Structures are given as structure tokens and as C-alpha cells.
DNA sequence: TACAATGTTTTAAG
DNA sequence: CCTTAAAACATTGT
């Protein structure tokens, strides 16, 4: 499930209680989620004796600072989740990491194991953080930044482009579909084929979908309204929820992921843009 | 059984 | 350098 709103929600499940110290860490040592850590138990074990002092997220990535030496980074992959269980909780199948504190147990579970666990020293972390791409809701994600990125990727299809974490940190499959549906662009539409006003609109829609998702899902994991594409996109025979539309939604693989769109509300420009065709990989004529 | 699933990375090829 | 496609990863559910 995890996109930026779900990451925000799960990060909250591990409460910051600095005086509640880690007494033990348990790792599913051979698990794929530890692929970037050579000795998981020893590596993560460095947080013993420290408390959880600070939490952050960046897109789909979650960061927890234990004591003053270590940031623990968690990525939820496709099926990861975080929970806070009672003190002395016993690990079950697919619990990849359990941090036992004096008062509770912080659990990272990931059945499919596409998630990741990383460690960062606090020293130098601020510099490292500053190099991450601008978050969509941050002040750095300006309209001109967005426009210049779109120009640089003029030949890219919008759907795969929205999934690029280096440009849209936290946007995943459902959010990308939601954005394109609201903005009225076919997922295969090329970034460079948008009119300037459409580009500006897309910038606003991306940010609106992010903030609404954070409000609805990121805080209490409420059910999104029926007016969102979200509620209809995986249903067979699902119909466009836009007032007065109701066209049957279409689904198709695009860039390796299933895209869902409304054939009536989301149009693909039929015009070919010569300036996008100078390089291989640029738009081909549409049939 | 076969396929698909809210993700990322790698590899190959045009 | 840019884009696309496919495969791989590991597990569960329909």
C-alpha cells in the first residue's frame, strides 16, 4: 500500500518517547530487506540503549533517530507496515525487525520483502538530507522547478514520469492515476505535449492530491471519498466518478505498472510535436 | 493454475 | 544522454 500518505501514517505508529530506551532488537537476518546491511543484528543493534528521539518522512521513506548517533531508515516496499505492540511482543512470520523497548515493541513487517532497512550516521546526515529531491509539498517544489523538470523530460509519458521518485517523491501507482485523472491527461500523454497552462495545472493537481491524501489517509487512514478515482480504479467494470461522465474505466500496463484512466475525461493529444522527435525514444506517431 | 498486487533496481536495447 | 521493456525480487490472494 505504501505511498507518501501511507508512509506518513505508518511512521506515526512508532511514537517518539525519548526516555523509553531500546533493550533489544530482533532481526529476520537473512531477509532481503537487510540487503544493504552486511551484519543486520550488529548494525541495527547499535541503537540499543537509545530512545526514539525524532521521526521524519521523505516521500515513501521513513527516518527514525535513535539517540544521537543513528538514523534508522525504513522503506515499506509493496507490503510493508509498522505497528507498535505491547512490551514483550513475540515475533511472528514476516516480522523483519522488532525493536523491544522498556515499554513497547516497534514492529516492521513485510511479507513480500520489497522493503528496505538502512542505517545512517547522524554525523553528516543534514548534508545528506539536503541533497534529497524537493518534496512535493515543500517550498522547494516551485512551479518553475516543476516546469524545468517537465521540459527536461518532454518525451516521457506522464504516468511513468509521475512514478519517478527523483522527481515526485512519494507518488505511487494510485496517486499517479488520481493525478492524471483529475488533470485530464491520458497516462501515455507526453510531458512535452502539454500547453503551458496545462503544465501549471498539473503542478497544482499533484500538490493537491498529495495534501488531500495526507489528510485523509496519512492521519487516520480513512476511506477516501467516492468522488476519487481511487475508489473505482480496481473494480471490474468500474466507472468514472466524475459528475455526468460514468464512462467505463480502462486499464492497461504502461511502463510495467497497470494504469487506470477514463477514456472520456483523459485524452491523448493527437498532434505530433516535431521538437520532441529529435532523439530516439521521443514520441512516435499514434495509431 | 496463472496472474496480478499502492515498489525498486538492473539489464539490455533502440 | 534519453526512453522503453522486461525481468527479478518474495508472498499472498483471486
3D structure, described in words:
It is built from 7 helices and 10 strands. The chain is of the alpha+beta class and 287 residues long. Strands 1-6-7-5 form a 4-stranded antiparallel sheet. Strand 3 and strand 4 form a beta hairpin. The longest helix is centred in the C-terminal third of the chain and has 23 residues. The chain binds a DNA duplex (14 and 14 nucleotides) through helix 6.
Per DSSP, the total helix count is 7
Major sheet size, sense and barrel closure: 4 strands, antiparallel
**How many beta-strand elements?**
10
The sequence of SSEs as H and E is HEHEEEEEEEHHHHHEE
Envelope shape: elongated
Which strand order spans the largest sheet, edge to edge or round the barrel?
A: 1-6-7-5
Question: Terminal Cα separation, in Å?
Answer: 35 Å
Q: Compute the gyration radius: what is it?
A: 21 Å
Unreliable sequence segments = 274-287
What fraction, in percent, of the residue positions are helical?
10-25%
Secondary structure blueprint with pairings:
Layout lengths: L3 H8 L10 E6 L12 H5 L7 E7 L2 E6 L3 E6 L5 E6 L8 E7 L2 E6 L6 E6 L3 H6 L12 H10 L5 H5 L10 H11 L12 H23 L31 E5 L2 E5 L26
Helix pairs in contact: 1-7, 6-7
The structure holds a DNA duplex (14 and 14 nucleotides).
